[in-house]
């Protein structure tokens, strides 16, 4: 249960202001004229995140099996500290995504989210969380739930703007959370 809760909270907070959350806003605005677009976008986010985070969690489980538990603990803690610094750098969305819009809201969302998550903070966090907790299913469920908690309201609101949020404060809070996860990993 700890793996599920930690994964959900970590990713939900890390996702605020992340490029995939901005992408959700852009997709919701782009397809707002289509009936059922919000449902298609939410389903695209869910399935894309599930596939991407399953692969990331599997890599975390696989990689940690090759090293000693002591070294693994230090690597996981160090990774949490690195992510803490990384979240302080704001993301930007690539404007090259418009070529996928002709595929419709579901496919455009699925493809763009999968690509955007490659090497993203939340994907790296999923690898690290999976390495920390030996609970692949719980980590995948938690990180996917965290993505949905952060992105579904953006899609539903559609007109909501991330610029209205205190992004600096949110990024700093997220950095503190990752740093605390690093400390807890070292201590326990």
Automatic annotation (TrEMBL):
Keywords: Membrane, Transmembrane, Transmembrane helix
Highest taxon of source: Bacteria
Spans traversing the lipid bilayer: 40-59, 71-88, 100-116, 136-157, 169-187
The UniProt record lists the keyword Transit peptide: no
Keyword Transmembrane helix: yes
Broad class of where this protein is predominantly found: membrane
Pfam families, alphabetized: GDT1 (PF01169)
Topological category with respect to the lipid bilayer: Multi-pass membrane protein
Subcellular location: Membrane
GO cellular component, one term: membrane
GO molecular function: metal ion transmembrane transporter activity
InterPro entries documented for this protein: GDT1-like (IPR001727)
The family this protein is said to belong to: Belongs to the GDT1 family.
Protein name per its UniProtKB record: GDT1 family protein
């Amino acid at each position: 249960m700890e793996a599920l809760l930690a994964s959900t909270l970590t990713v939900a907070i890390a996702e605020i202001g992340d490029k995939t959350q901005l992408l959700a806003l852009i997709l919701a605005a782009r397809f707002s004229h289509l009936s059922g677009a919000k449902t298609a976008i939410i389903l695209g986010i869910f399935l894309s995140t599930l596939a991407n985070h399953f692969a990331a969690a599997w890599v975390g489980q696989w990689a940690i099996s090759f090293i000693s538990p002591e070294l693994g603990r230090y690597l996981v803690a160090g990774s949490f500290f690195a992510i803490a610094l990384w979240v302080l750098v704001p993301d930007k969305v690539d404007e090259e995504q418009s070529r996928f819009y002709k595929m419709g809201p579901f496919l455009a969302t699925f493809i763009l989210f999968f690509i955007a998550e490659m090497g993203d903070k939340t994907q790296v966090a999923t690898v690290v969380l999976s390495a920390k907790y030996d609970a692949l299913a719980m980590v995948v469920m938690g990180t996917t739930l965290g993505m949905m908690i952060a992105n579904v309201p953006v899609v539903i609101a559609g007109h909501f703007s991330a610029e209205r949020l205190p992004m600096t404060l949110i990024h700093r809070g997220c950095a503190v959370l990752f740093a605390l996860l690093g400390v807890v990993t070292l201590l326990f």
